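Reply to dn_fold:

You asked what the input looked like. This is it:
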Amino acid sequence: MSADDARFMALALSLGRRGQGLCWPNPAVGCVIVQGGRIVGRGWTQPGGRPHAEPLALAQAGELARGATAYVSLEPCAHHGRTPPCAEALIAAGIARVVCPIKDSDPRVSGQGLAMLRAAGIAVTTGVLEAQARRDHAGFFTRIAAGRPMVTLKLASSFDGRIATATGESRWITGPEARRMVHAMRARHDAVMIGAGTARADDPSLTVRDLGTRHQPVRVVISRHLDLPLLGQLARSAREVPLWLCHGPSADAERRHAWEGLGARLLPCRVSGLQIDPADALRQLGAAGLTRVFCEGGSALAGSLLAADLVDELVGVTAGLGLGAEGLASVGALGLDRLAEAPRFALLDSRPVGPDLMHHWVRNRSPG
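and this is what came back:
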């Protein structure tokens, strides 16, 4: 891998990340066209998934694309959908070389785009910054492989792992810098998800704020009985910002009708024991097109996701205060008897955020 290949691929990946949370169910792809060491075209997947990154970069490059190198953060598509294949667009533009980090796991592509390029006489280089590309496209890959979105679980807690006092007071355990960081994380996901208890206790809006005008993620609430406040912030904004409610088969018909009347989308899910089956809820969300879900608790939902091994990344924001054993634990019961049964994650990043500490963890195995 040359230094230039690594540099231009890093740029393509960073451009692709601009589309995260905006282009589901499509992958967020970036493309850079380089001619004679100079960038002549750039593009990334646009909101809603169209246009793709490659045609945007090619349009910007114009005739300078002929004989150039295209750095694409995922294998160019090879199938006809709402737009022609991007591999065909690269061929037609006269691109001489394509560099991409990783194959597309979608069976409609999966090597066919690269084969199409090679058959046209285009030099193809793969594997450049592959590890970063796998992380960037983890949501897309997880939906293809497991039929569910990637799940990031965020827990903002005291030093002793509590998310509220014994009386339920929780605003604010962490500082404004950490809360702004969380809004930026929300913006990079397709959906923000909470449990019914959190919705009732906090009356949250779950919107992205203080980051300028932008598309809002879907709000998802897991509520077996749909016993959520019909006059709360979620209900009042259901027509302006998408609200999806995962409920059980026994949810009251009048409540179902009321929420649909408010503009919410209802997703019937199976029940396991006394709660919504988290695996089935995520399958429903995956079937609806979501690839990246940012879960903000509460403790029961966090526990059910961890117990079912459905968490792909953990983001902890820890504040320097203690709330004691009487406070509300950040994670509900997992039913563990031995340490070996506990889900383990590898530390990816750790840094101060204002007066608090952020720590980011990832699973050590492939999604799904």
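The longest strand covers residues 150-157.
Hope that clears it up.
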